[in-house]
Amino acid sequence: QVQLVESGGGLVQAGGSLRLSCAASGRTFSSYTMGWFRQAPGKEREFVATIRWSGPITYYADSVKGRFTISRDNAKNTVYLQMNSLKPEDTAVYYCASPKNPYGPAPLVSRNNYDYWGQGTQVTVSS
Fold first, then answer.
1. Do residues 62 and 47 touch, judged by C-beta distance below 8 A?
2. First to last CA, the chain
3. Peptide bond into 99 cis (omega under 30)
4. In order along the chain (127 residues), what is the average pLDDT of each group of 10 residues?
């Protein structure tokens, strides 16, 4: 059974930083692309970043490019999202996700590409 568990969210002032973690279990982590999405109140869940199974190929939404960095540690079965220069508009619940099938093309930016989701972690950026 695939499980994804996010952690690291919290309250931070604008301009600050947070690092989110997503611990995966239930299958061979290194064979799967991982992604981060976010959902603000009243809005659709949107793509943030993705990292290919083979690493270090990454892809970012324009809104976070240059501020956020996705990385993975296959030895720890964990994917990270380092978020710097945070803005109030980054406030959302952040989810990590992974597709059902291993390997595959990059980048995967649509929610429809992902089958497994974590429970989410809240990030709140105050102005």
1. no
2. 40
3. no
4. 96 98 94 96 97 88 98 96 98 97 86 96 97
